[in-house]
């Protein structure tokens, strides 16, 4: 496969855009470097790069593109917005309709507010939790990603009772010391952190199903325990459902798990591919937000008609009977194909799959927390990634990311992918 034009564009990009990319995860740094493939157009589950190579895509724009590229229903909605006004700076009927749709699908949302990104949505839930409780500390979990605002770019201290330290240059130590990071799925360490800091903790911020060190389910009882202890200490629970909302079924992960957080942050899928975030939760907590209450949050572009109409259209597609069952069925087929290929070629892997999303880890261990994901073989993944790319299969360039199916992937795409996996594993031996 020739990538001459991608390389040219990337080298030009390096001169004008920092690092040549507009989000660090798009660079190939984690898979040994080189020019990332530059995409030109997409259709359904496929996209084509500037050299004309076709790929079956499992990146899905890091999650949002659940209905594939250029879905006609969403395209029509975006066209309508383009023709009738993409921004008014006034309320619109679209945002009301969309808020109602989200509330109907996710019962914990008494009220919602739209933002422009997942980062903004999570950032505001943290502020609202602090405003509501009058406390400042946050507990989060190792390996969960919540966007790029200061409070979540905080590395774990040396133990569960230790305050965090900045995980990015530019994050003040004073901010990091408001955050405690504990291992996911570890009730004991969570309890230790709460015993030490619980009275000062405004909220527990968590991905209820993890998507950011691969797809990882909470162990049975883990989230229930988090809720129980949070309640004992008067701390709020915030679910970051930026990846998981509408990923596994028509609703959020919380409904699949039978749990009710105080606040929920969303993004990605709900924008139908356009920039979006949203947060919501219990009425009395949400009512602390301006203009009703003292917690400030705003946005020139928030709730803009283009994102609202695209989001509504995307959810309408996801209401089609059977779409989630089909993603689950194809996900199971893909998982089996990958595991069979690994056995055939003597490659050691662990696959975590949750319906239409899966992660392949090059490890013999179970992956239930970040440390276990970290221990998987990154060099093997990097080789695997490039071999798959050479066969026209696009994965995220990181061992920590998921493969996402869309409503547009078909059985023939899965079979082609399994053939590519067999090829890649035969070369990896
Ligand atoms: N929360 C989670 C769970 C995410 O995966 C992400 C992005 O990947 C974010 C928040 C941040 O969302 P955005 O990139 O839209 O700011």
From TrEMBL:
N6-(pyridoxal phosphate)lysine sites (modified residues): 268
UniProt GO MF annotations: glutamate-1-semialdehyde 2,1-aminomutase activity; pyridoxal phosphate binding; transaminase activity
InterPro entries in the cross-refs: 4pyrrol_synth_GluAld_NH2Trfase, Aminotrans_3, PyrdxlP-dep_Trfase, PyrdxlP-dep_Trfase_major, PyrdxlP-dep_Trfase_small
A cellular-component GO term for this protein: cytoplasm
Similarity comment: Belongs to the class-III pyridoxal-phosphate-dependent aminotransferase family. HemL subfamily.
NCBIfam families: hemL, PRK00062.1, PRK12389.1
Protein name: Glutamate-1-semialdehyde 2,1-aminomutase
Species annotation: Ureibacillus thermosphaericus
